[in-house]
């Protein structure tokens, strides 16, 4: 998670810990160099970063320039030794790319300044506005539906405006010392594809047939696909999407990369597959979201308007998300079947996974992919048998219940 604009009262200044003070000092230095005159910041407010970063809202206390009253600062520690993925260049380059597109095409906060050596970015502050998660966890179905469709359209617009910009993204990545072409999801997915068959057999007694395994590997190949490539935010959690007066705005690009857009579109069928806030949506909602996304991308990728092109890719992407989330969340021995996360409202692991495998079974059946449908049905049945009656019922998001 990145900029959580719904955070409570300021508390970082009271703690006055070294990390917060160092982040403020680094931001002042970066802004001063960017604008050529001294800029002073005050009243840092902790916005609770992802754990990989410190995220603060700060007041602009002194500046000779016309700057917003408040800004958001995000700083990164050096990644641990041996860590292959450094989130800083992914995030900084992503904001650079969108800021260069211009205001009409920008669906994220504007990048005000950044520094690769200090590992700091300074962003426009979008204010204390609700997130998509807030809408889904509230009790206004119409408002939640509008927010979901806005999210799907914004995702399609993001893909459409960044198609053909991979060379720019790679060049900016090199300039910040990152590795071009690196998809942070690919490493996890590779391990999940290798380990899940044995996991399912050991924990649920399910053996995967050769044909279903082949379909899963097709899903993995989407991570290296050379078709339909555009920018992906990678982390599509509901609390990383803000509902502002100017439309939906996307936050948190710690995994930002360029890849096949079908992977993000497939995630619309399992809203927020790698996040804890993943309850059930009303019938027809995911189809409406995919249609909204498709309307935005089809002018750029006309062949995706053809069901024979898009639907098999969506199924393979959906299968990859289901495999990856099962590898992540299926309770191991000694791990309770509790909520996916305790940070916000979250369903039980078993009920979230059971619903995903059932949805995969139904979508595979409609597409006449019997091997995938049978595989999904076997896993769903095994989850129900292992975890009992509660596992077969995933509650609706509160907004629709």
Reported CATH architecture of the largest domain: Alpha-Beta Complex
Cα gyration radius (Å)? 21 Å
Q: Which spans of ≥5 residues are poorly predicted at pLDDT below 50?
A: 1-16
Q: Approximately how much beta-strand content do the residues carry?
A: 5-15%
Number of domains: 2
* CATH homologous superfamily label of the largest domain: Aminoglycoside phosphotransferase (APH), C-terminal lobe
The end-to-end distance, rounded to whole angstroms, is 26 Å
Main sheet specs: 5 strands, antiparallel
Number of helices: 13
CATH class designation of the largest domain: Alpha Beta
> Shape from CA axes?
globular
Structural class: alpha+beta
Strand segment tally: 9
User: The CATH topology of the largest domain, please?
Assistant: Aminoglycoside 3'-phosphotransferase, Chain: A, domain 2
Average of the residue pLDDT scores: 91
Strand ordering within the main sheet: 1-2-3-5-4
Protein name: Phosphotransferase family enzyme
